[in-house]
Design goal:
Number of helices of chain A: 14
Number of strands of chain B: 0
Largest sheet of chain B: none
Helix content of chain A: 40-55%
Distance between the termini of chain A: 34 Å
Helix content of chain B: 40-55%
Order of helices and strands of chain B: HHHHH
Shape of chain A: elongated
Strand content of chain B: under 5%
Number of domains of chain B: 2
Strand order of the largest sheet of chain A: 5-6-10-7-9-8
Oligomer: heterodimer
Number of domains of chain A: 2
Largest sheet of chain A: 6 strands, mixed
Distance between the termini of chain B: 72 Å
Structural class of chain A: alpha+beta
Number of strands of chain A: 13
C-alpha cells in the first residue's frame, strides 16, 4: 500500500468517525468559525481603514499650526502669519476657519469650515452627504436638497438662515459626511469670531526635508503654538486602530481566550467514547503513529473548514455588508455616521497570520491527548 | 465521481483555496475600480485642506484625532473619565506623546539629531 493510499484510508476513517459525532463536531466548527470570523473581521477592517487613510490623507496640509492655551486648542491670531511667512523655506501660510456646530433639532454635530469660493456668496452653504440626510429644516425626514434653507442659531442668540448651494460628492463621504462649507462672513457671524483670529494655520514648504526644522523655528518664535506635520496625521491613523489599543484589543483578547478554552478542552483529554475508539483501533492492530495521523487529520479537517468559512464570511461582512456588526460600536453616540464601503485591502501576510494563529495551534492540541491515550495498553483503555 | 470521503475532503480543500483566490481577485478588481474614488477623495482633502477622516462625529477629539490635544477627552472635570464610546476604540495619536517645543521631538532621523 502506497503512502498516499494509506493517508487516504486513514482520512476516510477519520471523516466517518467525525460523522458519528455529528452534533458535537458541527457545534465545534460553528464556534470555531465564529472565532476566526471575528478575528479576521477586525484584521480586515482595521487594515483597510488604515490603508484608505494613508491614501486619502497624502494630500493633507504639510503642516498645521495650532495655538494652545491652558492645555487646550485656542484661536490663533492672524498676525502670526506674517512672522511665520518670514521663516526661510516657508512657501505659503493660510488661515483656516473651522469649528463644530451642535444642531439641537437633529442632535447631530457638524463640522463647519470656511471655503474661499463661498466668500463672495455669503448666505450659501455646501453640505456633505451625511448632513443632507439629517433633517434640519423641521420638515420631517426628507433629505436636504439644493436651495433648501437651514436655520442656524448664532452664538449671540440670533438666527442665521443659510441656503444649500450644493452637495459635496458622495464618493468623498468618508471625509466630508458631516461637513458644511460656509463663507468667512457667515462663519464669523455664527461664532462671533473676531476678524484677526483663525482656528489654525496651514503651511506649505519648499522642501519637505525642512519641515521639522521649520516646525522647531515656529515653536521658538511662538512658544504657544503646536505644529502638526502631515507625517504625524498619517501616523495618527496608523496608531488609532492599532490592535494593541482600545476595544480592538478587548475584542481580540475575548476571541483569544475563547480559542484558548476551545483548545484547552481538547488538550485536557478525550471523551470516554474517543478513548474506547483508540483502544479498539490499537487492539485490531493500528500503530500509535496511525492513531496520531488520524487525530492530525481530524484536527486539520475541523480547523481548515472553520478557517475557510471564517475568512470568507469576514470578507463578506467587512467589504460587502459594510461591517454591519461593527456599526453599533463605531457609531457610539453619534447621530451622524458616514455610510461608506471600504475598498478591500487584503494581503497574503494577513491570511498567513490568521492561519498560523488558529489552524496550527488547534491541530497540535488535538494530537497531544491522543498520543497519551495511544501509548497506554489498549485493554486498559477499553476498560476505562 | 466523489466515491470516497477523502475525495470530498480534498475537493472542499480546493474549493476553500479557490474561495481565497477569488477574494484576492475581488480585492484587486475593487481596488482598480475604486482608484477613481480614492483620487476624488484625495482631491477633496487637498482643496478643502482637510486633516481627518469623518469616522466618529460624537466628540471633537474623535472627529479630528490628529488635531486634538491630550486634555480634551477629560474636559468636563479634572478627574472625569473619557465618556464617549469612540474614545475607547481609538488609541492616543502618537504625536500627542511627543515632547512638545523641542527640535528633537520632530526629528525622527537619528542622523539629523547630531
Amino acid at each position: 500500500m502506497g503512502a498516499i493510499e494509506k493517508q487516504r484510508n486513514i482520512l476516510d476513517f477519520t471523516l466517518s468517525s467525525l460523522g458519528r459525532r455529528k452534533g458535537k463536531n458541527i457545534a465545534l466548527v460553528v464556534v470555531y468559525t465564529f472565532v476566526i470570523f471575528l478575528l479576521a473581521s477586525v484584521l480586515f477592517f482595521t487594515h483597510s481603514l488604515k490603508k484608505e487613510a494613508s491614501l486619502i490623507l497624502q494630500d493633507a496640509p504639510e503642516m498645521t499650526v495650532q495655538r494652545l492655551l491652558a492645555g487646550r486648542q485656542d484661536l490663533i491670531p492672524t498676525h502670526y502669519i506674517d512672522t511665520i511667512r518670514q521663516i526661510r523655506g516657508v512657501q505659503s501660510v493660510a488661515p483656516r476657519l473651522w469649528g463644530y456646530y451642535y444642531d439641537a433639532m437633529s442632535g447631530a454635530n457638524y463640522t463647519l469650515m470656511v471655503n474661499a469660493e463661498l466668500n463672495d456668496r455669503a448666505g450659501e452653504i455646501i453640505i456633505g452627504n451625511g448632513v443632507s440626510m439629517r433633517s434640519m429644516s423641521g420638515i420631517g425626514n426628507q433629505a436636504l436638497r439644493k436651495n433648501d434653507i437651514i436655520p442656524f442659531k448664532t452664538y449671540d442668540g440670533s438666527v442665521l438662515t443659510l441656503k444649500v448651494r450644493g452637495l459635496l460628492p458622495f464618493a468623498s463621504e468618508l471625509v466630508t459626511a458631516d461637513l458644511i462649507l460656509v463663507s468667512e462672513a457667515d462663519f464669523r457671524t455664527l461664532f462671533s469670531i473676531a476678524n484677526d483670529q483663525a482656528t489654525d494655520l496651514v503651511l506649505n514648504v519648499r522642501n519637505a526635508k525642512e519641515l521639522s526644522t521649520i516646525a522647531a523655528k515656529i515653536t521658538q518664535i511662538h512658544p504657544d503654538t503646536r505644529p502638526i506635520l502631515r507625517e504625524e496625521i498619517l501616523r495618527t491613523y496608523d496608531a488609532v486602530f492599532d490592535w494593541r489599543g482600545g476595544v480592538i484589543f478587548m475584542v481580540l483578547s475575548g476571541v483569544f481566550f475563547a480559542f484558548i478554552i476551545l483548545a484547552w478542552d481538547k488538550a485536557t483529554g478525550l471523551s470516554a467514547e474517543e478513548k474506547r475508539e483508540i483502544g479498539i483501533l490499537k487492539a485490531i492492530g493500528w500503530e500509535t503513529s496511525d492513531i496520531l495521523l488520524m487525530k492530525f487529520w481530524e484536527g486539520s479537517a475541523v480547523s481548515i473548514a472553520a478557517f475557510f468559512m471564517g475568512i470568507f464570511l469576514a470578507y463578506l461582512h467587512i467589504f460587502l455588508a459594510s461591517s454591519i456588526l461593527f456599526e453599533p460600536v463605531l457609531k457610539g453616540w453619534s447621530v451622524l455616521y458616514p455610510s461608506f464601503r471600504l475598498t478591500p485591502y487584503i494581503s497574503v501576510y494577513q491570511i498567513a497570520t490568521l492561519f498560523f494563529l488558529t489552524v496550527i495551534p488547534y491541530t497540535v492540541v488535538t494530537i497531544v491527548p491522543s498520543w497519551r491515550s495511544a501509548t497506554i495498553d489498549p485493554d486498559s483503555v477499553m476498560r476505562m | 465521481m466523489l466515491q470516497r470521503k477523502s475525495d470530498l475532503f480534498f475537493s472542499a480543500l480546493v474549493a476553500g483555496a479557490l474561495l481565497i483566490c477569488l477574494m484576492f481577485m475581488d480585492a484587486a478588481i475593487s481596488q482598480r475600480l475604486d482608484r477613481e474614488f480614492v483620487q476624488e477623495r484625495r482631491e477633496v482633502v487637498r482643496v478643502l485642506t482637510l486633516t481627518d477622516l469623518c469616522l466618529f462625529t460624537e466628540a471633537r477629539y474623535t472627529r479630528h484625532p490628529s488635531m486634538a490635544d491630550l486634555h480634551t477627552p477629560f474636559q468636563d472635570h479634572p478627574l472625569s473619565f473619557d465618556h464617549f464610546p469612540s474614545g475607547a476604540i481609538m488609541a492616543v495619536p502618537p504625536h500627542l506623546k511627543r515632547k512638545a517645543g523641542t527640535l528633537q521631538g520632530w526629528i525622527s532621523d537619528p542622523r539629523e539629531r547630531q
